[in-house]
TrEMBL record:
Gene3D superfamilies: 3.40.50.2300. This is Amino acid/amide ABC transporter substrate-binding protein, HAAT family. Signal peptide: none annotated. Residues 31-366 form the Leucine-binding protein domain. Belongs to the leucine-binding protein family. Keywords: Amino-acid transport, Signal, Transport. It comes from Methylobacterium gossipiicola. Pfam families: Peripla_BP_6. The keyword Signal applies. SUPFAM superfamilies: Periplasmic binding protein-like I. GO terms for biological process: amino acid transport. The keyword rRNA processing does not apply.
């Protein structure tokens, strides 16, 4: 293939950095990969983590020859974690002929968009969508490098049973799909073990409702409060509760694996438990990538390394198959193993990654570490 002129390379770099929208310049790119993340709304922090990881992986891959020798250009789109916007993004990629996508972040967005991708033979790989139904449908071009919410709920229920069997437990959700599903699955698993919660309730996340909820939980004598809300909502609830003299053992999910939670909760974040994927920053396979981030003054927290792994998996499979074709790359992901920042992993028939799943963490002094 004839190499682009210098101007084309400059345009490609701007698109790669997300500084130029897709258009005439990007149409001359060797291989375009869509990146669908929330850049507005409640989950911006997680979206930025994923995007940061994807951009770093694209940069590193291009330095080594790209995807099967072709330069990677990113088409970054904002879905705001909204189902309708996610479908619009998926249709945008279909119209542009983009058949490889890293995204989406929120499960509701991934579920909505995946139907469009499946119909168009587009390969979608998510770094953060945990809904079991996403892969349980068996769509051949849908993958994830993160864990599943049913596995997360099982671990949460086990922790509640083993550590807090004799305590009054509340299971909370704010009505959003992810929060509601995790609360329901955790309750189901806990009840199956033989333990009944004292209170299971939904509430509307706001300053006034958070205060009212804190007072209600305090009056009920709740000692342990499980909540599947995002970092912003849980951070606020934990802080407001502490200000009102209610300091239970808080228990969150992977949605609070970002510095934003600790910033909002303040010192009340100390001791908060959380389920999250195995921290890839501790894996030797990720050491060089982690060091590169830190050299730039960036702590690759939360889903950053998973964003890196998602694009890295696409590149590895495409290079192995000597193809940019989405269906051939998907078939390769299903049948081969790859050395990624997550270790040596493959993908099962559903599209779930074979990497280790969830573990328990605890927040202290603005950071989270493995819980003992």
């Amino acid at each position: 293939m004839i190499r682009r002129l210098a101007l084309d390379g400059w345009v490609a770099r701007l698109v790669l950095l997300g500084l130029l929208p897709m258009g005439a310049g990007a149409a001359r790119a060797d291989v375009v990969i869509g990146v669908a993340v929330p850049r507005s709304g409640a989950y911006v922090a997680v979206g930025e983590q994923v995007l940061r990881g994807v951009r770093a992986a694209a940069r590193d891959a291009n330095a080594k020859g790209g995807l099967d020798g072709q330069t990677i250009v990113l088409d970054v789109q904002d879905d705001a974690c909204d189902s309708n916007k996610a479908v619009a993004v998926a249709n945008h990629y279909a119209a542009q002929g983009v058949r490889l996508v890293v995204g989406h972040v929120c499960s509701n967005a991934s579920l909505a968009a995946s139907d469009v991708y499946a119909a168009n033979g587009t390969l979608m790989i998510t770094a953060a969508s945990v809904a079991a139904r996403l892969t349980d449908r068996g769509l051949p071009t849908i993958f994830r490098v993160c864990g599943r919410d049913d596995d997360q709920a099982k671990l949460s229920a086990t922790v509640l049973a083993e550590r807090f069997r004799d305590k009054k437990i509340a299971i909370l959700n704010d009505g959003t799909p992810g929060s509601r599903n995790l609360a329901a699955a955790t309750k189901e698993n806990l009840n199956r073990i033989g333990i009944n919660e004292t209170l299971a309730t939904a509430f509307t996340a706001s300053d006034a409702d958070d205060a009212a909820l804190a007072d209600r939980l305090k009056e009920a004598g709740i000692a342990v409060a499980y909540y599947g809300g995002d970092a912003r909502e849980m951070g606020r609830l934990v802080r407001i509760s502490a200000e009102r003299g209610f300091k239970p053992q808080w228990f969150g999910t992977s949605a609070i694996a970002t510095q934003e939670f600790a910033t909002l909760a303040g010192t009340a974040s100390n001791g908060v438990l959380m389920t999250f994927y195995l921290d890839p920053r501790r894996k030797p396979e990720a050491a060089a990538v982690v060091a590169a981030f830190k050299a730039e003054g960036v702590e690759p927290e939360g889903s950053t390394i998973y964003g890196y792994a998602a694009l890295q998996a696409l590149v590895a499979a495409g290079t192995f198959a000597h193809s940019q074709d989405s269906k051939r790359i998907a078939a390769t992901l299903h049948t081969e193993r790859f050395d990624l920042v997550l270790g040596s992993v493959g993908f099962d028939a559903k599209g779930d990654v074979t990497a280790q799943g969830y573990v328990l963490y605890v927040w202290n002094d603005g950071t989270f570490t493995y819980a003992k």
